[in-house]
Structure formats: structure tokens, C-alpha cells
Specification:
- By secondary structure, this protein is α+β, with helices and mostly antiparallel strands.
- It has 2 domains: 2-129 and 295-309, Diaminopimelate Epimerase, Chain A, domain 1; 134-292, Roll (Diaminopimelate Epimerase, Chain A, domain 1).
- It has helices at 32-42, 82-94, 142-149, 180-184, 190-200, 236-248, and strands at residues 2-12, 19-24, 47-52, 67-72, 77-78, 103-109, 112-120, 124-129, 134-135, 164-167, 171-176, 204-211, 214-224, 229-232, 259-266, 274-283, 286-304.
- This is PhzF family phenazine biosynthesis protein.
- One of its GO terms (cellular component) is cytoplasm.
- The active site is at residue 46.
- GO terms for molecular function: isomerase activity.
Length: 310
Amino acid sequence: MGIKVYKVNAFTKDSKGGNCAGVVLDGEKINELEMQIIAKKLNFSETAFVIPKDKRKRKNNKEVYDYEVKFFTPTEEVELCGHATIATFFTLAKMGLLPQNNISLKQKTKAGILDVDVISKDEIEVVMSQAEPQFSDESLNKEILSKILNLCEDEIGFENLKPQIVSTGLRDILIPIKNEEDLKNIKIDNDLLINYSRELKVVGIHAFAIDSNNNERFIVRNFAPAVGIPEESATGTSNGALLAYLIKNNFYELKDHEEKTIICRQGMYMGNTSEIIAKGSISNGKIAIKVGGKSYIEGEEEIELKPLEI
């Protein structure tokens, strides 16, 4: 059986860079084992499998959503993936599979049912809502983190910000780094990070430094070897979590219903610069986060599933 996979770069800047995800539009034709096999063969950080609601009917299903999207790394299924979501809905729009150019949709994920806006003007832009931010109070061992990053302890943290586990769909350790030079010098101890990630039940580390010329721009790096991703060039959920973290820790003082936008630059040390836009607001004490960006389809591939593999 052959399965068509689109190779889509999401969170691109000027139609370059980005993070490549696999997108399978007819996910209803295969089971989760087959999805994992495809994701492993592609070996992208994530592959998304799209299941339109009316294509896989379930009894007594009263949930309101348009598409179910399942996300797999080369080694396991994950609850949510920002860049693969952006890639998925860009592909649906590009292939003319959405009923109109500018549309709001709901995607069902293991992180919940989340809103996705597709805006088609000169270019297609996709903006996705994140799950409600969750902030962990557990203390993190700065000595271990410095060993994982191969940095000195005093290079971690700035402006009263300290490492914290945050989730807008996936649990990451958010680590503020004093400056971009220190961020660039990170050399991850993969074995130590894998063990620490499993101990804390997190996906990995999202390290960031502020742009010295603009406190609404950040340089970020993301490491998740515990789920098969040594470093990722664009991570939507992690940058959404970053903005939630900054708002929660009063880096920005927002009034009720005021919106803050940040731009995160990622992947430059991998030779694959990406740009992620995150938008955050507070309403009645609750933080709401959206992330978005642009994409392009790099190519497509037909993957054959052999009976012995399944």
C-alpha cells in the first residue's frame, strides 16, 4: 500500500529555512502502527496524520472539530506539534481542500481541541491556538542544567527569570540564557538530557536569549533527544510556552485583553533559520497563546508499507 506524504517547511522566513514536517492528508486509511512506521522512515522531527471528522466515524461522537491530527516523531507519538500543525493546514489550503480562503477551524489533538486560523492573502499564513498554559512549581537543579548545556551556572538566567517547566501542549524546560553568545556555545550532553527529561516527564529543553536591540525578539534553541530530536529548527508549541512564561513572570506587564506579540528566531546555528510569531493575551487572569507562521511545500513522496513491517 502506498501512502502519499507531503514534505512541508513550516515557520519559514522569506520562503527559506523553516522546519520540515511530513504531512499525510489521508490518515484515516492507516492505523497508528503504520503511522509510526512512516514517521520513522521519513525521519523528520514530526510527521502529522490528518483525519477529517467525517472520514472515521465514531458512535456517540459529539465533539466539535473539523480534523483530528495525530503527531509522530521517529520514535513515538506526541500530543501536539506546532510546526507540523502549521504545515498541515497550509497543505490543506494549498491543495484547495478547505471550503474558503480565510477560515477558522478546530483540530482535535491529544492536547485538546484547538483553534486554527488560515489566512489566505498574498501568502497563506496559519495561526494556531495553544492549550491553556500550565506552569510547574517544581524546583529545577541548576547544576544539572548547566552540565547538560555545558555552560556555567551564572550564564543561566537573566532579569529575575529562572528555568521553569511550562506547557502549552507539551512540557518543556524553559531556560533563559544570559546572552546570544552563551546560547550559541551550548553543547548538549544528550545522555544526561535524556535521563533528566524522562525523570521530569518533559519533552526537552527550550533555551532562549533576548535580542540585545529589541525585547520583543528572541533567539531560541530547542533540544529533545529523549523523543529522537537532537535539535529542532522551529518549534511552535515551545515558543508559545515561552511567551506564556514571559507573561506569567511579568517580563511584560499586560493589561486585561491587551495582546503582546514576539518574534522568535530559531535554527540559525543549524543553517536553517526559521521565524515563529507568538501572540499572547490575558483575560480575567487567564493567559491565551497563539503561534503562527508561513510555509512552503518542498516536495512529496510515496511511501510503500510492506506487509512484514506492519
